[in-house]
TrEMBL record:
One of its GO terms (molecular function) is dihydroorotase activity. Pfam families: CPSase_L_D1 (PF25596), CPSase_L_D2 (PF02786), CPSase_sm_chain (PF00988), GATase (PF00117). One of its GO terms (biological process) is 'de novo' pyrimidine nucleobase biosynthetic process. InterPro entries: ATP-grasp, CarbamoylP_synth_ssu, CarbamoylP_synth_ssu_N, CarbP_synth_ssu_N_sf, Class_I_gatase-like, CPAse_ATP-bd, CPSase_dom, CPSase_GATase1. Keywords: ATP-binding, Ligase, Nucleotide-binding. Residues 575-742 form the ATP-grasp domain. The keyword Phosphoprotein does not apply. It catalyses: hydrogencarbonate + NH4(+) + 2 ATP = carbamoyl phosphate + 2 ADP + phosphate + 2 H(+); hydrogencarbonate + L-glutamine + 2 ATP + H2O = carbamoyl phosphate + L-glutamate + 2 ADP + phosphate + 2 H(+). This is Small subunit of carbamoyl phosphate synthase.
């Protein structure tokens, strides 16, 4: 990854005309589009097609963000104040913008779907803008919403090239210029001849302003939990968190109030040391250079000296806490802005995927002796968190409240609230306790497996154009094993695959992937371990049939245990496992005869879907509208499977898939997700799929992502797996269809 160390400013490039748009407006657009120009401080310029406000030219700091969803939340995040935001995701606007009038049922007078009451970016740059949108909550297009807040936006810019420029040269100032014929005369003289037709403006560096003072609320405000959920303190009142608003996102308030604590939000310059009516101190996220917020730093310095309550900081709050402790901060070359950034817990060794938005970082080398590093960025090594060694004081650079982004680290609110609750009960301040144990304990619980020879069950006979992902997964597994110096044996009868290519596996047996031949190869080769999860359904079925033989043959099953594979393949066992953790599956019953299937369907009510267990590629599955259709369908299903699942039909719902990877130490990520072009009712193997999903909002996307991670952890999958959902297109109702304890197409696509 490119270094985040800032270098000298690049020299101005030779004057050239702007690069024209890389895309065109819609063919059916009647009115001509406005061509605006993005000008960067290095002298380069790019024309784009306007889809936002067209009232004036603007200037700001040009930064990029790598999130795939969540533009309504990002654009209303106060941390983006004064910045021209480049979204790297190529197609933006697909799911429109939700209602601005709908209020949050928990916070009453705050909007439900946004992170503040206004858009804070100075301008928006995207590759391609979708004027059509599809989502049941959408009330307008992205362009219409931007116009409401007078925010310019352009598309047709090569955002990949723009991102590479910022990564190599660092963040730089930019301008979005509009023609004088549209917005009026120029403000400052043109820098180049071509600018004479544009309204030019001065360069504006937002970091030179006190942006926090611009975005912070002006008067204190209290948000209370429902009485039934309130976490009461020994004083007979709900525990109160005093939250210093230095650019606070609304979801931070939601995360506290939903956990039963009262939140008193105060302005950035509020003297919280003079206020004794609170149980814990919280410092929010916010925009700009942290050293500009001198009043807050002074108050925090005194609070650290007094050490009266637990303290928790997020993002800018993290930087302010570090500065108050005596540490220093530094401006990063291009910062970290996105929803897929890995951070490692320095205590447990666990890695979490986080949401981030910052251009400054704490210099960990400058931390005082009584503080330690809590999290580190796994990409660039920058600091992501600190904690006091003896007091309940800690902070993180990333956003555990997400919105947008993954919810993996939301548990940090529980860590803080527990510290506050313990303090009020005991009267003693002590260092926070992080979940997950220590690195040493994790290593002892899950020691590295020592194997010298591994047998890989390959993809078997494949039809042209089908199941290529299993060839892909097996090939990648063999490459990884060879990198570890492990002798690799492959069974695969198909010579027309990558994994059977000369020089990949150390030895290849061109034999059918069946228990009989697998047994013979094991006896001949005497491997230490075997993988059954890289050959699709064929390999899984062999693993299940031979589960009681492996120990006697001296072979250890690597990756996902056979018991977990059975739990995902046996429809009844799977349903019970999901219900045990309160997850949503369709109303269903298992059957082993045609008569049982018909009885189940009559109890559930037609139409129903019949799913065959332990079957290849959906064989024997389909929809039935009456007893006759179901009898015919199940008769075919029982020819290939001993069991079927009869479940409520969700025909017409969206079908969504997530590819999940988990290791033996419980690090868990989603590699990719997919959205079927066709609604539920057409087998995924016969459908067009789009990766990643296109019509899921941030809440939809991360609701299903969080569920996927929880399910895979509960089942005990080790390695890759695929989870499929049915999602109601008119609500957030979803059902888990199935889990495949193996790789699927989404990993190959990713």
């Amino acid at each position: 990854m490119p270094s985040q160390v800032r270098s000298a400013a690049p020299a101005q490039v030779a004057a050239v005309y702007p690069i024209p748009p890389v895309s065109a407006p819609p063919c059916d657009q009647v009115e001509p589009s406005t061509i605006a120009t993005l000008v960067l401080q290095d002298g380069s310029s790019y024309q784009g097609i306007s889809f936002g406000a067209e009232t004036k030219s603007i200037s700001g700091e040009c930064v990029f963000q790598t999130g795939m969803v969540g533009y309504p939340e990002s654009l209303t995040d106060p941390s983006y104040r004064g910045q021209i935001l480049v979204l790297t995701f190529p197609l933006v606007g697909n799911y429109g913008v939700p209602s601005r009038e709908t209020m949050d049922p928990l916070l009453k007078d705050l909007p439900k779907y946004f992170e503040s009451n206004e858009i804070h970016i100075a301008g928006l740059i995207v590759g391609q803008y979708s004027q059509d949108y599809s989502h049941y909550l959408a009330t307008s297009s992205l362009g219409a919403w931007l116009k409401e807040y007078n925010i310019p936006a352009i598309y047709g810019i090569d955002t990949r090239a723009m991102t590479k420029k910022i990564r190599s040269q660092g963040v730089m100032l930019g301008k979005i210029l509009f023609p004088t014929a549209l917005v009026g005369p120029t403000v400052v003289p043109a820098d180049e001849a071509w600018m004479n037709e544009y309204q030019n403006v001065d360069w504006v560096d937002p970091n030179e302003r006190n942006l926090v003072a611009e975005v912070s609320l002006k008067e204190p405000k209290i948000y209370s939990p429902e009485p039934s959920t309130a976490l009461m303190g020994p004083h007979g009142k709900p525990l109160r968190i005093l939250a210093v608003d230095v650019g606070m996102k609304y979801n931070q308030i939601r995360c506290f109030v939903a956990r039963g604590v009262e939140v008193k939000v105060v302005p950035w310059d509020y003297d919280f040391n003079a206020d004794t009516d609170y149980d814990g101190l919280f410092i929010s996220n916010g925009p700009g250079d942290p050293t500009m917020t001198k009043i807050t730093i002074a108050h925090l310095t005194k609070a650290l000296q007094i050490a009266r309550t637990p303290i928790f900081g997020i993002c800018l709050g993290h930087q302010l806490l570090a500065l108050a402790s005596g540490a220093t901060t530094k401006k990063m070359k291009f910062g970290n802005r996105g929803h897929n950034i890995p951070c490692t817990d320095m205590i447990s060794g666990r890695c979490y995927i986080s949401s981030q938005n910052h251009g400054y970082a704490v210099d960990v080398a400058s931390l005082p002796e009584n503080f330690m590093e809590l999290f580190v960025n796994a990409n660039d090594g920058s600091n992501e968190g600190i904690m006091h060694k003896t007091l309940p004081i800690f902070s993180v650079q990333f956003h555990p409240e997400s919105t947008p982004g993954p919810r993996d680290t939301e548990y940090l609110f529980d860590v803080f609230i527990k510290a506050v609750d313990d303090f009020r009960k005991t009267g003693t301040l002590k260092a926070i306790t992080m979940p997950g144990g220590t690195k040493e304990a994790a290593a002892a619980l899950n020691p590295r497996v020592s194997v010298r020879k591994v047998l890989v069950l390959g993809s078997g006979g494949l039809s042209i154009g089908q199941a290529g992902e299993f060839d892909y997964s097996g090939s990648q597994a063999i490459k990884a094993l060879k990198e570890e110096g492990i002798y690799t044996v492959l069974i695969n009868p198909n010579i027309a695959t990558i994994q059977t290519s000369k020089g990949l596996a150390d030895k290849v047996y061109f034999l059918p992937v069946t228990p009989e031949f697998v047994r013979k190869v094991i006896l001949r080769e005497k491997p230490d371990g075997i993988y059954v999860t890289f050959g699709g359904q064929t390999a899984l079925s062999v693993g299940i049939k031979m589960k009681d033989e492996f120990a006697g043959l001296g072979v250890r099953v690597l990756g996902t245990p056979i018991e977990t594979i059975i739990a995902t393949e046996d429809r009844e066992v799977f349903a019970q496992r999901m219900l045990s953790i309160g997850e949503k599956i369709a109303q269903a019953q298992t059957a082993v005869t045609v008569q049982e299937a018909i009885a189940a369907a009559n109890e559930i009510g037609y139409p129903v879907i019949c799913r065959a267990a332990f079957a290849l590629g959906g064989l024997g599955s389909g929809f039935a509208n009456n007893d006759e259709e179901l009898a015919e369908l199940t008769s075919r299903a029982f020819a290939t499977s001993p069991q079927v699942l009869i479940e409520r039909s969700m025909k017409g719902w969206k079908e969504i898939e997530y590819e999940v990877v988990r290791d033996c130490r419980d690090n868990c990520i989603t590699v990719c997700n997919m959205e079927n072009f066709d609604p539920l009712g057409i087998h995924t193997g016969d459908s067009i799929v789009v990766a990643p999903s296109q019509t899921l909002s941030d809440e939809d996307y991360n609701m299903l992502r969080t569920t996927a991670v929880n399910v895979i952890r509960h089942l005990g999958v080790v390695g890759e797996c695929n989870i499929q959902y049915a999602l109601n297109p008119f609500s957030k109702e979803y059902c888990i269809i199935e889990v495949n304890a193996r790789l699927s197409r989404s990993s190959a696509l990713a």
